[in-house]
Amino acid sequence: MARIGIAADHGGFRLKEEISAKLQSAGHVVVDFGASGLQETDDYPDFVVPLAQAVASGEVERGIAICGSGVGACIAANKIPQVRAALIHDAFSAHQGVEDDNMNLICLGGRVVGPSLAWELIQGFLDAQFTAADRHKRRLAKISALER
């Protein structure tokens, strides 16, 4: 099982709590970057950026970020070098993003996907492995060059 980081603002708080419990039940170690309570005035960067930094440093193997739509969380996470975050709403992209693009942080919309779909997407994300095909490594090297 993996060490998984998770973060959410008020828009994703309830979904974060449900997903955290399911991850723990599945045997994963869950590192919660907040929010620790439902507060309507909180801001997703306060939770997503520390999560993304933990993904980049290897403190956690993969990350899950949730805000109302998932868009803001995705934008914030991708500001951290070595983070490859994507907003995911379908099962194909959940695993393909890892397999081809080495996605290491999934972003979800707490007001867009329900708990059942979110769990399915997260399972696909966590079960997938980067293929390390030459074409994928070449593309990722071009993206990494942008971060320098």
In short:
By secondary structure, this protein is α/β, with parallel strands linked by helices. It has one domain: Ribose 5-phosphate Isomerase B, Chain: A, CATH 3.40.1400.
Report on the architecture of this protein.
- By secondary structure, the protein is an alpha/beta fold.
- The model has no long low-confidence stretch (mean pLDDT 97).
- Strands 2-1-3-5-4 form a 5-stranded parallel β-sheet, sandwiched between helices.
- It is 48% helix and 16% strand.
- It has a single domain, classed as Sugar-phosphate isomerase, RpiB/LacA/LacB (Ribose 5-phosphate Isomerase B, Chain: A, 3-Layer(aba) Sandwich).
- It has helices at residues 13-25, 45-57, 71-77, 91-101, 115-127, 134-147; strands at residues 3-8, 29-32, 62-67, 85-87, 105-109.
What is the end-to-end distance? Answer: 33 Å
Annotated CATH architecture: 3-Layer(aba) Sandwich
Count of distinct strands: 5
Number of domains: 1
Give, in spatial order, the strands making up the sheet with the most strands.
2-1-3-5-4
Entry keywords:
alpha/beta, Ribose 5-phosphate Isomerase B, Chain: A, globular
Question: In terms of topology, how is this protein built?
Answer:
Layout: E1 3-8, H1 13-25, E2 29-32, H2 45-57, E3 62-67, H3 71-77, E4 85-87, H4 91-101, E5 105-109, H5 115-127, H6 134-147
Parallel strand pairs: 1-2, 1-3, 3-5, 4-5
